[in-house]
Amino acid sequence: REPSAAHLSMGYCPQSDAIFELLTGREHLELLARLRGVPEAQVAQTAGSGLARLGLSWYADRPAGTYSGGNKRKLATALALVGDPAVVFLDEPTTGMDPSARRFLWNSLLAVVREGRSVMLTSHSMEECEALCSRLAIMVNGRFRCLGSPQHLKGRFAAGHTLTLRVPAARSQPAAAFVAAEFPGAELREAHGGRLRFQLPPGGRCALARVFGELAVHGAEHGVEDFSVSQTMLEEDQGKDEDTEEQKEAGVGVDPAPGLQHPKRVSQFLDDPSTAETVL
């Protein structure tokens, strides 16, 4: 009913950097602070704190056109936070950032949430969503396919657990053979130096109690120095499921009836007809 008042309570970071290349980072924040009605006596302080929050103080007085892609995204995010809006919308805020800068921005956004403000972001990274979000909505072709907390979606869609072993490099093969023999269906996902990472299917002989028991009793015999078990990340499960669906859609291993055209299917990972959600 009052869109102008609502807009005053919102901050927005677009997917493409909406910055003026000739203005410095400080000038950007001072300009937006004035446009948002920050008292003139507080404009400089608002700009300075915004730059510091996003780690841009060192670049504050350089033209924004000279910033790296990651710093431009930081500046765009800082602009969205000017005036302490109650709701902040971020569209792919970490695009073009290196892992260190991405982690820094995540921590900055979590600090904003702890202040009692709401942050809504879009992202192609499940890792990012798991790190930042208390609720996730997955959209396919403009439609919401599932909604819930990260733990709810993990419990509903994640397939099994991830087993990580630390072994001497020379004993990697015996350790891998031991896992394959004791835990049917275990899939070796990564082998780097003395670190082995397996994907375990749910239940059966890969039940958690049995995994811990077998590794505790017999792991040392096969060179296992240490091990950990964690829930499969949504990123891994989504990627695996989408690969399977792409093969089906491409006809790999499928013998369709002549003349029939099958509609393109949405990945099962994204197709949740249930409206129930586990509240954690």
From TrEMBL:
Boundaries of every ABCA1-4-like C-terminal R2 regulatory domain copy: 160-231
GO function terms (MF aspect): ABC-type transporter activity; ATP binding; ATP hydrolysis activity
Pfam family, one: ABC_tran
Segments of this protein annotated with the region Disordered: 235-280
Start and end residues of each ABC transporter domain: 6-95
CDD domains per the UniProt record, alphabetical: ABC_subfamily_A (cd03263)
Biased composition (Acidic residues): 235-246
Cellular compartments per GO CC: membrane
Protein name: ATP binding cassette subfamily A member 7
GN (gene name): ABCA7
